[in-house]
Each structure stands twice: as C-alpha cells, then as structure tokens.
Structure to design on (148 residues):
C-alpha cells in the first residue's frame, strides 16, 4: 500500500495535549498569538544574527578580543570574578562568625553581600559566554560558509 493510501485510511485525529506540549503550546494557540510569537522569534533571531556578525571573524582578532575581556581593567579575571571572590570571603566570615539568624544590621549586610556576589557572578558568566562566542566565531563562520 502506498503512503498516500495509508494516510487516506488513517482516521483524522486532533492534536493531543502531549503533542501540543511538545510544540510548546504553539500547535493549538490562536492564529493571532502564533503570528505574534513568530514576530517575536524573528526579532530575537535577527538580534542574535547581528550579535554574531559583530564578533571578530579572524582567529587572531578573536583571540585579541577575548584576551581584552579576560584582562578587565588590568585584573587577572573577567569582569565580576574578583568582586564576587572578595564578597564571598566577607560573606563566609559573616555567616560563620556573625549573627545572621536574627533580623539586624549583620543579617542585612549578609543579604547585601549575597546579592552582590550573585550579580557579580551573573556579570562574570555573561563575560565568559561572550568570550566563548568570540573564540567560537571563526569556526562557526567556517561551518556555515558554503563549500566551494
């Protein structure tokens, strides 16, 4: 039996909840929402393409750009790492030796330091992601270029 005849013999069935979940809810959403979603995705994809196009394509330029991010303001680490390291030492001392169980200035200071560590680590991971993108870009361009 051909595929066409087999499909003709199949009973039409609706999209299941499971299938819709696999499609992130897009299979059963309204046409307006689907169009809006596609527009948002297109905007994000265009932004990502512009970002990737802004990265150095020459391997030596990529290494230089990554090194510049690694040597943030003459530090030995990318932005955020040294700050998070210092704050984490202070936070450790406060938690081990301070009174952070009860409300008060020590607890507020510990919460502030924990927040600063988190923000510094977010910034550091952003910088490390950018360094990775920069270093990967020459190989990405080579993979995506059509073979001659």
């Amino acid at each position: 039996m051909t595929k066409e005849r087999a499909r003709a013999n199949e009973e039409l069935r609706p999209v299941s909840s499971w299938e819709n979940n696999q499609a992130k809810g897009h299979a059963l959403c309204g046409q307006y929402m689907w169009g809006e979603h596609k527009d948002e995705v297109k905007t994000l994809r265009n932004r990502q393409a512009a970002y990737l196009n802004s990265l150095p394509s020459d391997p030596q330029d990529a290494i230089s750009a990554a090194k510049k991010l690694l040597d943030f303001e003459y530090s030995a680490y990318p932005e955020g790492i040294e700050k998070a390291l210092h704050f984490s030492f202070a936070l450790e001392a406060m938690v081990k030796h301070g009174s952070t169980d009860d409300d008060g200035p020590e607890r507020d200071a510990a919460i502030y330091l924990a927040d600063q560590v988190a923000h510094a680590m977010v910034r550091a991971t952003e910088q490390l992601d950018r360094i990775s993108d920069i270093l990967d870009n020459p190989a990405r361009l080579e993979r995506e270029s059509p073979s001659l």
